[in-house]
Amino acid sequence: MNKSISLALVxxxxxxxxxxxxxxxxxxxxxxxxxxxxLSLAYLKTDDYTFTQVASLRTVAQDGASVTNFDTxxxxxxxxxxxxxxxxxxxxxxxxxxxxxxxxxxxTSDPGFRIAPEGYAKLSTTTVTIPKGKMKSETPILIExxxxxxxxxxxxxxxxxxxxxxxxxAVEGSSHVARSEQANTYFLPIEKSYNNVSLTTDAAxxxxxxxxxxxxxxxxxxxRGSVVYGVNALSDGSTTSWWLANIAADxxxxxxxxxxxxxxxxxxxxxxxxxNYITAVRELEILITKDGTTWLSQGKVNAYExxxxxxxxxxxxxxxxxxxxxxxxxxxxxxxGYYGMSELSLYATE
Length: 350
Prior knowledge:
Layout: H1 2-19, E1 40-45, E2 58-63, E3 66-67, E4 73-79, E5 87-93, H2 97-104, E6 113-115, E7 121-123, E8 127-130, E9 141-145, H3 149-153, E10 160-172, E11 177-179, E12 185-195, E13 197-200, E14 207-208, E15 214-218, E16 222-224, E17 227-229, E18 243-244, E19 254-259, E20 264-272, E21 281-289, E22 295-302, H4 303-309, E23 311-322, E24 324-332, E25 340-341, E26 343-348
Parallel strand pairs: 1-11, 2-12, 6-10
Antiparallel strand pairs: 1-4, 2-3, 4-9, 5-8, 5-10, 7-9, 10-12, 13-23, 14-26, 15-19, 16-17, 18-25, 19-24, 20-23, 20-26, 21-22, 21-24
């Protein structure tokens, strides 16, 4: 009985070891059930070691009018089996909504991807050849920034997400080769960060907007007894009166300034404070609104630096058309500190 059990165990282990074949990088990866009506399938593969339809997220940065390029991506066309003739494969960039939907449905959450428009990216070639008896295209397909990349990337004054979609369009040269329906598209997601502000002690570049044309609002106001440190102090022309946030109840305060007459091309925010009056917050995010409802980030500045310099300009690297500006604290500072300003002015082009 024991011998019978031992023999069965040995046979079982041998069977398992036979199934656990090591990964061979030259073995094509594809769904074999898809090839039941075809001898070979053409599909996209990023390199010799990985098989995926989605590249890792590329990041680029816009700083004022300047934007960095995304890294060139190399892709090859493979066959699941060698063909009996040379095979020519045609590829192209797919800008359809259907392609975008195919990608976003794989995400747990969509930060706002848009399909990359024509000219955002370009291909080094749109046709590749896989020689007879081979399984990999002779040359790679390079996805690179296109001729309109800078123009399109800097058109929006905000962070953005673009999707470049590479697709196998046609396969020619052998009746025994067909396009894979499951792996014919390769996605290259790109995130653009955006910064349009800098902190400076230089004079404002625009024209001071009159305080009676602006509406100030703060998320909180500090008071002590009958003394209220309200937002009116921000535009009274005096550096001896103060707006203070109620940090205890509102640890990340926000101030908004709306222009009553509509949109202006904002150039600068001028901030006057006093040392040790901006210590409860460490970082401020500057946002603008074009419609009075949606807020778009223009970047972040160091609140401690404002505290040290006391009289600074938050300068828009590119003047931005908007109806209002928001200064939002996004990072806490000292637990028992203050957050206050004596004057807050807004400048715009003439």
